[in-house]
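Justification of computing resources. Each target in the renewal requires a structure prediction run like the one illustrated here; the chain below, 174 residues long, is used simply to show the kind of job we budget for.
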Amino acid sequence: SPSRGLGDVYKRQVILLVEDSEGNVGTCPTTVTVVDTFTPVAICNATYTAVLDASGNALVLPTDIDNGSTDNCGLVEYLINGFTAQNYTCADVGSINAILTVRDSSGQTASCPSTINIVDNIPPTAACQVTTAYLNAAGTVVITPNDVLAFPATSDNCSTINSSFAGGASTQSY
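Resulting structure tokens:
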């Protein structure tokens, strides 16, 4: 007898025996085809939050948005937007629609929607340097944040940096 999973479609040759009350026996060979006709049930989390890392990437797996999808014979594949994984970047910050697709061993599929919230919660790195500012002839000097920030040590994983002095000023006058 073939060793197959419950959801496998397969054919098996069998011999049927029939016997009458007199003990006479007749046989006939036949083929039994086993087919799984039950489609899986895809169940998604309504939302999933993916947090961008220091490189500005977040890898989301289908199992991250799966919420207990089932099949009578077991599931053999999970896909997110048609792939085994989905990478999101800083360009994706916000809400993104995704589709989870599950497949059973008979090739039957089911899908469900989910919303992935891509977030960047890593603060920028500020690196300051000691700066010498020279007074002008009138005895004043104006500096900007870029005069005291050290680049490239001052950086962010996702975006350009807007800088100001404490209190929001874009310049300091002395």
